[in-house]
Amino acid sequence: MNTKATNRNRNGSTDYGLFQINNGYWCSPGRHNICRVKCRALLSDNISAAVKCAKKIYKSSGFNAWYGWKAKCRGRNLSRYVKGCRY
Protein backbone atom coordinates (compact mmCIF):
# COMPACT_ATOMS: atom_id res chain seq x y z
CA MET A 1 0.00 0.00 0.00
CA ASN A 2 1.38 3.39 -1.02
CA THR A 3 0.34 6.19 1.32
CA LYS A 4 2.20 8.69 -0.87
CA ALA A 5 0.29 7.87 -4.06
CA THR A 6 -1.09 10.73 -6.14
CA ASN A 7 -3.06 10.62 -9.36
CA ARG A 8 -3.77 13.55 -11.66
CA ASN A 9 -7.22 13.33 -13.23
CA ARG A 10 -8.35 14.50 -16.66
CA ASN A 11 -10.38 17.31 -15.10
CA GLY A 12 -7.25 18.75 -13.45
CA SER A 13 -8.03 17.55 -9.94
CA THR A 14 -5.69 15.28 -7.99
CA ASP A 15 -6.33 12.21 -5.82
CA TYR A 16 -4.16 11.82 -2.72
CA GLY A 17 -2.90 9.01 -0.54
CA LEU A 18 -3.97 5.52 0.30
CA PHE A 19 -7.66 6.31 -0.21
CA GLN A 20 -7.14 8.49 -3.31
CA ILE A 21 -9.05 11.41 -1.82
CA ASN A 22 -9.82 14.08 -4.39
CA ASN A 23 -8.86 17.72 -3.87
CA GLY A 24 -11.84 18.93 -5.87
CA TYR A 25 -14.10 18.44 -2.88
CA TRP A 26 -12.42 16.92 0.12
CA CYS A 27 -9.02 18.50 0.89
CA SER A 28 -7.17 21.77 0.38
CA PRO A 29 -6.10 23.37 -1.72
CA GLY A 30 -9.40 22.62 -3.34
CA ARG A 31 -12.71 24.28 -3.96
CA HIS A 32 -14.59 22.88 -0.97
CA ASN A 33 -12.21 21.19 1.55
CA ILE A 34 -15.10 19.31 3.15
CA CYS A 35 -12.72 17.20 5.29
CA ARG A 36 -10.96 20.33 6.56
CA VAL A 37 -7.53 18.82 5.91
CA LYS A 38 -4.57 19.72 3.72
CA CYS A 39 -4.14 17.27 0.86
CA ARG A 40 -0.48 16.73 1.74
CA ALA A 41 -1.57 15.43 5.19
CA LEU A 42 -3.25 12.56 3.33
CA LEU A 43 0.16 11.40 2.08
CA SER A 44 1.50 10.55 5.55
CA ASP A 45 2.32 7.06 6.79
CA ASN A 46 0.18 8.05 9.78
CA ILE A 47 -3.16 7.47 8.10
CA SER A 48 -5.35 8.92 10.87
CA ALA A 49 -6.34 12.03 8.89
CA ALA A 50 -6.90 9.97 5.74
CA VAL A 51 -9.11 7.45 7.56
CA LYS A 52 -11.14 10.24 9.18
CA CYS A 53 -11.67 11.89 5.79
CA ALA A 54 -12.46 8.59 4.02
CA LYS A 55 -15.08 7.83 6.66
CA LYS A 56 -16.63 11.25 6.13
CA ILE A 57 -16.67 10.70 2.37
CA TYR A 58 -18.23 7.26 2.74
CA LYS A 59 -20.88 8.55 5.14
CA SER A 60 -21.75 11.30 2.65
CA SER A 61 -21.61 9.41 -0.65
CA GLY A 62 -20.81 5.76 -0.07
CA PHE A 63 -18.30 4.21 -2.43
CA ASN A 64 -19.79 6.22 -5.29
CA ALA A 65 -17.42 9.05 -4.36
CA TRP A 66 -14.51 6.99 -5.72
CA TYR A 67 -14.28 6.65 -9.50
CA GLY A 68 -12.09 3.56 -9.15
CA TRP A 69 -14.82 1.75 -7.24
CA LYS A 70 -17.48 2.72 -9.76
CA ALA A 71 -15.31 1.65 -12.69
CA LYS A 72 -13.79 -1.55 -11.29
CA CYS A 73 -15.83 -2.82 -8.33
CA ARG A 74 -19.49 -1.81 -8.41
CA GLY A 75 -21.77 -4.72 -9.19
CA ARG A 76 -19.00 -7.31 -8.79
CA ASN A 77 -18.54 -10.02 -6.20
CA LEU A 78 -15.69 -8.73 -4.04
CA SER A 79 -16.05 -11.20 -1.16
CA ARG A 80 -12.64 -12.77 -1.81
CA TYR A 81 -11.00 -9.46 -0.91
CA VAL A 82 -12.54 -9.36 2.56
CA LYS A 83 -12.43 -13.08 3.36
CA GLY A 84 -11.31 -13.48 6.94
CA CYS A 85 -11.86 -9.81 7.81
CA ARG A 86 -13.96 -8.80 10.77
CA TYR A 87 -15.99 -5.74 9.95
From TrEMBL:
<dbReference type="InterPro" id="IPR019799">
    <property type="entry name" value="Glyco_hydro_22_CS"/>
</dbReference>
<keyword id="KW-0929">Antimicrobial</keyword>
<dbReference type="InterPro" id="IPR023346">
    <property type="entry name" value="Lysozyme-like_dom_sf"/>
</dbReference>
<dbReference type="GO" id="GO:0003796">
    <property type="term" value="F:lysozyme activity"/>
</dbReference>
<keyword id="KW-0081">Bacteriolytic enzyme</keyword>
<comment type="similarity">
    <text>Belongs to the glycosyl hydrolase 22 family.</text>
</comment>
<keyword id="KW-0378">Hydrolase</keyword>
<keyword id="KW-1015">Disulfide bond</keyword>
<dbReference type="InterPro" id="IPR000974">
    <property type="entry name" value="Glyco_hydro_22_lys"/>
</dbReference>
<feature type="domain" description="Glycosyl hydrolases family 22 (GH22)">
    <location>
        <begin position="35"/>
        <end position="53"/>
    </location>
</feature>
<dbReference type="GO" id="GO:0042742">
    <property type="term" value="P:defense response to bacterium"/>
</dbReference>
<keyword id="KW-0326">Glycosidase</keyword>
<protein>
    <recommendedName>
        <fullName>lysozyme</fullName>
        <ecNumber>3.2.1.17</ecNumber>
    </recommendedName>
</protein>
<dbReference type="Pfam" id="PF00062">
    <property type="entry name" value="Lys"/>
</dbReference>
<dbReference type="InterPro" id="IPR001916">
    <property type="entry name" value="Glyco_hydro_22"/>
</dbReference>
<dbReference type="GO" id="GO:0031640">
    <property type="term" value="P:killing of cells of another organism"/>
</dbReference>
